[in-house]
Amino acid sequence: MPDVELRHLTTLAAVADEGSFGRAAARLGYTQSTVSQQIAALEKAVGGAVFDRPGGPKPVRITPLGAVVLAHGRELLAKAQSMAAAVDRFKAGDGRVDIGTFQSVSNVILPLVVRRLRDEHPGCDIRLFEEETDRPHVGELDLMFFDGRVDGDVEHLKLLDDPYLLVARRGTFPDGPVDPAGLDAAPMVAHPPICDQARLEQALAHRGVRPRIVFRTAGNETVLSMVRAGMGVAVLPQLAVGGADVGSDESLSIHELRPALPPREIFLLWQADRTHSPLAARAIEIAVDVVGMIAERA
Amino acid sequence: MPDVELRHLTTLAAVADEGSFGRAAARLGYTQSTVSQQIAALEKAVGGAVFDRPGGPKPVRITPLGAVVLAHGRELLAKAQSMAAAVDRFKAGDGRVDIGTFQSVSNVILPLVVRRLRDEHPGCDIRLFEEETDRPHVGELDLMFFDGRVDGDVEHLKLLDDPYLLVARRGTFPDGPVDPAGLDAAPMVAHPPICDQARLEQALAHRGVRPRIVFRTAGNETVLSMVRAGMGVAVLPQLAVGGADVGSDESLSIHELRPALPPREIFLLWQADRTHSPLAARAIEIAVDVVGMIAERA
DNA sequence: GGCCATCCATCGCGAAAAGCGATAGAATCC
DNA sequence: GGATTCTATCGCTTTTCGCGATGGATGGCC
Predict the structure, then answer these.
(1) Distance in angstroms, CA of B27 to C1' of C29?
(2) Alpha carbon B120 to chain centroid distance?
(3) Burial, A277: exposed, middle or buried (Cβ in 10 Å; 0-12, 13-18, 19+)?
(4) DSSP H or E stretch at residue B25
(5) Residue pairs between chains A and B whose CB atoms are closer than 8 Å
(6) How far apart are CA A270 and CA A276, in angstroms?
(7) 156-195 in B: which are within 8 Å (CB) of A?
(8) pLDDT of A251-284, one tens digit each?
(9) Can you give the distance from the CA of residue A33 to the C1' of nucleotide C21 in angstroms?
(10) E strands along B90-138, which residues?
(11) A80, A82, A210, B215: which has the highest count of C-beta atoms within 10 A?
């Protein structure tokens, strides 16, 4: 059934409500003649009269066929309105945003971002994905936190430099900075060689420092526990350390590395040339702001 | 959100499916430029891009806003298709028909009509209304059986003459015709004075026959039981008698009245100048046919 | 790197339609 | 019978729709 448009159904409903072409026209801001033609077009499209016109002051009356069209038409119009409402909500910032993340960010940055985003947009739908893999598939996500650059058509916004710190059992080193050169052959607990860990080990190796990796685990807490247990030392980014409550831990000591290793860089990524939802755009702003506050506080 | 029409949503869905304006155009029988303009119009209407166009052979990709519009749009299109299907079914004769009736018709004629209508249109929705009142409100119904003429803008189709018969306890009268004049002052069981009963009593009175009404009830079976019990005689239309299984009833006898009383006329009524559904139109045809068969059989 | 293929945007044009105002015709009410 | 209240219809203008052709941009290929 071709050529039935929402406009026709709007007119149909108005006429059915008002009982008269003229009053429907007034309600819709049309002329009576326009309404007449719209109904005629609709009747042509559905192949039969939708109103009986008694003539004179009697109200027009819907036909059985018209009732069928009207019932479905009202549903259509309601759905159309709900679409309009959804679009408005979307533009106001509600909607869904899919964010990829990884441990340090999940622990320190993201909670603050999510909190503020949800405060601003209580109806929004934030979905987080903490992927195990090295290669992030940013294509499926709106936004992605990542500690390193990535190839492909991806735009990146550098959020912060996350310096590496040495974590050791208290007493292993005197307080104060430690030269990473001293870590050669030292037993070390470390992350798996994905993300920035690979780059870190390259940087150490480049200085002739080849620690003896005695255990690899993705869990920050596990790394710290192992250090606490005397398995070895750990070189962790500040965010990874700061996330755990290490400051008040009597059995661990944190040391600046001097000369410093190149810091881990944390980026916010998204597929290039892709239109952001208002919610995603706001998430970027908030992330930048949150990172600024964290850096300022440090 | 003005000016979003189904056409735009159709195009949107096609482009989303095909991943390209050109292929969508081919599917829809449009040109690529037309699709381009349709999407542009839609984007203007919703106030933002619905596709990211990477350029080159890469497929276009829906934006978050576009996804919102698309999700609702598909629902709209599905509803539109369901409307088209409903219209087709309606035109094929399915749908609803509301029929008003009364006892004699309900018992004898209507079952046959309903049976054939349902055989022809298994999906149809036949609703029967047996109103207690004298004045039928035909305005709410598509079709109405009634035993008498009615005022107002009602078209009437005379279905049949239903002659009055005398029902008496066997032995009260000798077999064969009975002169109604003999019923003056006779104890009589009768219907309430609605429908044709009032006219019947007038016709009797006009001939100077004033039976003594000893009991009035709307139930045909009750009338017959009372006659059987000896309360009196009854003058009933043939249909009312034929509905009950009186022929094989030893205790009752049926007598033609001679000279005959003016028969009850049974009409099929509908509101004048009102468009019939195909189902209602067919119901009229079937009713005429059924009545013809009944008359023929008698 | 140059060439080619693919793809979308845009412009001009002709046809269709949407919408308007005015008028005519039909039915009802008083 | 006239007044009133309807809808249908006829020109007419403006907008939209759709087409064809062209141009610009991107990616793949040799």
Answers:
(1) 57
(2) 15
(3) buried
(4) helix B21-28
(5) 114
(6) 9
(7) none
(8) 899 999 989 899 999 999 888 888 999 999 999 9
(9) 9
(10) 96-101, 125-130
(11) A80
CA separation for the pair B212, A185 (Å, rounded): 126
Footprint of strand D on the protein (CB under 7 A): A 15, 20-23, 32-33, 36-37, 39-40, 53, 55-57, 60, 153; B 5, 7, 25, 29-34, 37-38, 41, 54-58
What does the H/E/C string look like for A23-78?
A: HHHHHHCCCHHHHHHHHHHHHHHHCCCCEECCCCCCCCEECHHHHHHHHHHHHHHH
B147-168 CB burial, b ≥16 within 10 A, e <16: bbeeeeebebeebbebbbbbbb
pLDDT at B26 exceeding the cut of 90: yes
Indicate the average pLDDT of chain B: 89
Least confident of A77-86, A145-154, B127-136: B127-136
**Interchain CB contact of A220 with B (< 8 Å):** no
What phi and psi values does residue B109 have, to the nearest 5 degrees? -85, -50
- Give the pairing of strands B96-101 and B143-146: parallel
Kindly provide the b/e burial profile for residues B10-44, where b requires at least 16 CB atoms within 10 angstroms of the residue's own CB.
bbbbbbbebebbebbbeebebeeeebbebbebbbe
- The answer to whether the bond into A187 is cis (omega within 30° of 0) is no
The Cα diameter of chain B in Å comes to: 103
Instruction: Please give the pLDDT value at position B133.
Output: 60
pTM to 2 decimal places: 0.81
**Tokens at B88, concatenated:** 């087709």
Q: What's the mean per-residue pLDDT of chain A?
A: 89
Q: B65-108, pLDDT tens digit by residue?
A: 999 999 999 999 999 999 999 999 999 989 899 999 988 788 88
Report how far Cα A237 is from the mean position of its chain's Cα atoms: 24
Return the closest-CA partner of residue B266 out of B287, B297, B242, B243: B287
- What the block records as the tokens of B34 is 């037309």
- Which residue of A lies nearest to B142 if distances are taken between CA atoms? A64
Measured between alpha carbons, how far is B245 from B254 in angstroms, rounded to an integer? 12
Q: Which of A52, A83, A88 sits opposite B275 (nearest CB)?
A: A52
Note the pLDDT tens digit of each residue in A208-224: 999 999 999 988 889 99
Q: Considering only alpha carbons, which residue of chain A is nearest residue B52?
A: A274
